[in-house]
Amino acid sequence: MTASPAFAGDASAGSDVFKSECAECHSIKEGRNKKGPSLFGVVGRKAAAVPDYEYSDALRAQSAWVWTPEQLHSYLGQPAKRANPGTKMKYDGLNDPKQLDDLISYLGTLH
Amino acid sequence: MLSLPYRRMARRTRNMTVLYGVGAAFSLACTTAQAIPVYARQTGSACADCHAGSYGPALTPYGMRFKLNGYTDTGGKGFKLPVAAQLIGTRNVPARGESSNRLTEADVYLAGRLTDQVGGYVKVSSNNDGHNRFDTKLSDVDLRFVAKELKLGGKDLTLGVSVNNNPGFQDPIAALPGASSLGPPGVTGTVLNPSSPNAPANRVIGATVYGLYDSRWYGEAGTYNSLQRSTQDRLGYNPNGDPGKLHDTGYVRFAYMRDLRRQFFSAGVVALSTKRELPRTGGPKDKLTDLGYDLTYQYLGNREHIVQLSYVNILEQRKYGSLPTPLAKPRGTVHDQVATAAYTFKQSYTLLVSHMVSTGSRDDGRFFPYGVPNTTANLISLYWAPFGKDDSYTAMANLKLAANWFRFTRFNGASDNIFGAPGTNARDFNAFSITASVAF
């Protein structure tokens, strides 16, 4: 799966964004969870669906969420505590639109 | 006044103490607190998430947060055994004296999370005395209770208590000499410099209360008491390095820091005030007041090229309780400064250069023979740490190979004839070493 054209960013640049914004808490390796769950195959995945990761009740409650590019854009573009009150994810949000598009494009390559 | 033979004996003893102190400081700088795999096992993170070079010691902003959170952050995968170990082998080539190849240090770390609010770091170090006998000592300790995710005025607040044995070691920014182990090793120095003779590092116990507000404003205050000489001895420390009996000791720290993800900077001030009774004979006390500031900057980018800069400036004001000689002055100052620059490539290769300067006000009655204690030293280190990254072969162990060059251009106020007699020069303390460190 690739990122939707609406958020077609530069996946290569998104790799750098991932390293500075996400990599401390998330691995791109399948099955490797850090403070946050593995982001391998995240695009298109249902929320709170990685096995062996202990999600917050707040995210488990979002059973209808699927990590589409649109959902990721909305979620990552604001503080995590606002996007999903009660989440244990600590992230202030990425407010640079280009970096956000690049990042989501990069996440779409993680298969 | 002492007779000539006694003066010579006293001078020789003092010189030997100085030599021992310089060697110890060199060792300290090269084997300071490192990335220990127990934290990686606990969090699921890579060593390189918390450290610029994947073996440490320099912290990234993420590592600072882990420390501020009391070493309690977890990957949620249940209990992990909070034990790690480190072995260090060294090829040491001093400018004077014999070269050696030794297993120089074996360490055990008890570290990590006990509960969601309690965690810590305890290092027990066993050091080769040069004759393949190992002296075991309790090294740095930092036990924490922390209350996380509090709110004040709509902003994040973290509050905690640290029980530790080395003023400055607990600092999250880790630029202060107690945390970086980079301090000028001279014939005297500030209380906050662990390389100073009779420094309190590891020979005191104290508690500080700290808080981080809005992820930017850091404040800390606490107090310390020195351990009894017999306790220092039992913990593995030569009582000759006793910091003395400390009274009315206060430690205060404020800092402003900004984590901009690709960059980080901080500016802080620190103060430590104490009355020191040394020797412990119930006699007069020295009033010592350390006032310092520190500046740091990190360029992190995408972690491919990391640059870390720091500058620490500590001024110690001294009001002496006694005058050992008629020439001695009742007051004085000592000034320690450390500037450090490090470049790390791919979190595997690090070049570190540190410039350390200690100066003091003139006192012909205390600093023989030149009346000033001034010392200038440099540490130049090149590291290679192949593991400890997300894509490394193992997160269970780590390795570091390092080449270290420790050099002096001035010691005890002079470059040549540093103890007054011909034949002893500051550069005699120079040493080159290659170390191999393994942590698991």
Automatic annotation (TrEMBL), chain A:
One GO MF term: heme binding
Stored Pfam families: Cytochrom_C
InterPro entries, per the entry: Cyt_c-like_dom (IPR009056), Cyt_c-like_dom_sf (IPR036909), Cyt_c_1A/1B (IPR002327)
Keywords for the protein's UniProt record, in alphabetical order: Electron transport, Heme, Iron, Metal-binding, Transport
Signal peptide stretch: none
Domain Cytochrome c as annotated: residue spans: 9-111
Superkingdom per UniProt: Bacteria
Entry protein name: Cytochrome c
